[in-house]
């Protein structure tokens, strides 16, 4: 390989690495609970996190080499952290969803790009869960239990 070809290959590799690093998104998942949690990411990665442990998740690759190999989105009830990166006007969007029920409180806070506020769902929903929605270690969504979207529609109207 000539010097020119070697330089071209080197330049392409450097440009690719630079692009990947400057556009990478990381999520640092921290367990601040007094108990062990099992954090999972779709597609296919997950970790057991004891109290105080964290997991740095590279969302540009999905971190599929994890210990947990998730199929779908896990078994409800589970609290979901959802995100969509580089959306309309280059915005990153995030939310906490209880569509699959609730099992652990969550704080979803950005730590870069000038953001200073996050969102939190810290209430003890399990302690307030009606008997007909209770599940081991969580509280089910009424739509799942009653197999009806009318509950979801009424809930959306009540908001």
Q: Which short descriptors sum up this protein?
A:
two-stranded antiparallel ribbon; 159 residues; Thaumatin; signal; 10 strands; two-stranded antiparallel sheet; globular; Thaumatin-like protein; alpha+beta
Any overview of this molecule?
Belongs to the thaumatin family. Residues 1-24 form the signal peptide. It comes from Malus baccata. Keywords: Disulfide bond, Signal. There is one protein chain. With 159 residues, this protein is α+β, with helices and mostly antiparallel strands. The protein has helices at residues 3-22, 125-128, 142-146, 150-158; strands at 26-30, 37-41, 45-49, 54-58, 80-84, 93-97, 106-108, 119-121, 134-135, 138-139. The protein is globular and about 45 Å long. It is 24% helix and 25% strand. The N and C termini lie far apart (66 Å). The chain has a single domain, classed as Thaumatin, CATH 2.60.110. It has four helices and ten strands; from the N terminus they run αββββββββαββαα. It has a two-stranded antiparallel sheet.
Approximate strand percentage: 25-35%
The span between the termini is 66 Å
Q: How would a crystallographer describe the biggest sheet?
A: 2 strands, antiparallel
Query: Within the largest sheet, what's the order of strands?
Result: 1-4
Rounded mean pLDDT is 71
Order of helices and strands: HEEEEEEEEHEEHH
What's the tally of helices?
Answer: 4
Question: CATH homologous superfamily name?
Answer: Thaumatin
Domain unit count: 1
Structural class: alpha+beta
CATH architecture level-2 label: Sandwich
Query: How large is the radius of gyration?
Result: 20 Å
Report the CATH C-level class: Mainly Beta
In which range does the helix fraction lie? 10-25%
Total number of β-strand segments? 10
Query: pLDDT under 50 segments (min length 5)?
Result: 3-22, 61-70
- The shape, in one word, is globular
CATH topology-level fold name = Thaumatin
